[in-house]
Specification:
about 325 residues; alpha+beta; about 15% helix; disordered N terminus
């Protein structure tokens, strides 16, 4: 799958509720320069910061423009204001900090209805499963991401999964953060790239750049038959930040887990300078690719308060004028 295809086609996930308002940056003490940070010449802001309350490292994404979408949907979009975006996806350790402080239980833990199911989530079935590669598991939650794959111990620096859009926005709101808009996400993921893939035009050269469905994945799951022709060393999830960053210093934008954004699934705005999250559509959008996606994969559409072992999120923070 090309970079344009990886980034341009949103996934429809029907989920009730409205996106949170754009959350402005709070007290300056919330952010402190991270190691290796420099002053951005355009804004004077640190290029890399740590958000104190959440412990999340964030990267400054500059203002600018890009071509969003593909085919007839391709259009010019403008990001008028720089913003901070999580360097990686939110980890289990960071989500645990939130869950314990807020005494929060996720939709999977509380049993919010999804396709006739309540408690639990869709989780990867054993490799030898003869039916579907993913089945409903009442045991699945962010605390137990793979209950049917030997139920391995939770890894603190893996991205959190089995979280719905509700869970992601609750986390963000607790820390005075927000989900990125779809336009912000795609702009940051492209990071100015115009090649077929984030690493260039050759799919075989992707080793070291992303955790996708490849030779490691194929060895573990016999049903996986659309694979990248390299070995990224991970059959399922990998620790965040384990692969090369894109040109703007963001990691795992393509690979590891797909990511929630603010927007509903709706037509793109006629005004390319309209940075607001799309509202009035049906469902919420996720972007990017995950550990189970190979080249040429089409994105599925699912309904309700979606939660899977390949969906996570990263957070954004607006900056004051």
């Amino acid at each position: 799958m090309t970079l344009r295809r990886l980034l341009a086609v949103p996934v429809l996930l029907a989920l009730a509720g409205a996106a949170p308002p754009d959350t402005p940056a709070g007290p300056k003490s919330d952010l402190r320069p991270a190691d290796g940070s420099k002053a951005d010449p355009a804004t004077g802001r640190p290029t890399r910061v740590v958000h104190g309350p959440s412990g999340i490292t964030m990267v400054l994404v500059p203002a600018g423009g890009f071509r969003m979408g593909q085919g007839k949907a391709e259009h010019r979009r403008v990001i008028r204001k720089a913003f901070y975006l999580g360097e990686t996806e939110v980890t289990n350790a960071q989500f645990r900090r939130f869950a314990e402080a807020a005494k929060y239980r996720t939709d999977a833990e509380r049993g919010v209805e999804l396709d006739g199911h309540t408690k639990g989530s869709f989780a990867t079935a054993p490799p030898a499963a003869a039916t579907a590669p993913r089945e409903w598991s009442e045991a699945a939650s962010w605390r137990r991401p793979f209950p049917d794959l030997g139920d391995p111990a939770l890894v603190e620096d893996h991205p959190v999964v089995h979280v719905s859009w509700n869970d992601a926005t609750a986390f963000a709101g607790h820390f005075g953060l927000r989900l990125p808009t779809e336009a912000e996400w795609e702009y940051a993921a492209r990071a100015g790239a115009k090649t077929a893939y984030p690493w260039g035009d050759d799919p075989a050269a992707g080793a070291g750049h992303a955790n996708l469905a490849d030779k490691s994945h194929g060895k573990k799951f016999p049903w996986a038959n659309v694979l990248f022709p390299f070995d990224d060393g991970a059959a399922v999830l990998s620790r965040v930040g384990a692969y090369k960053a894109n040109a703007w210093g963001l990691k795992d934008m393509i690979g590891n887990v797909e990511e929630w954004v603010q927007d509903t699934y709706a037509k793109y705005p006629a005004d390319g300078a309209d940075e607001r999250a799309a509202e009035g559509g049906v469902g919420r959008v996720i972007r990017g690719r995950s550990w189970l996606d190979g080249p040429g994969m089409n994105r599925p559409a699912v309904q309700q308060a979606a939660r899977r072992d390949f969906i996570g999120f990263r957070v954004a923070k607006s900056i004051d004028p």
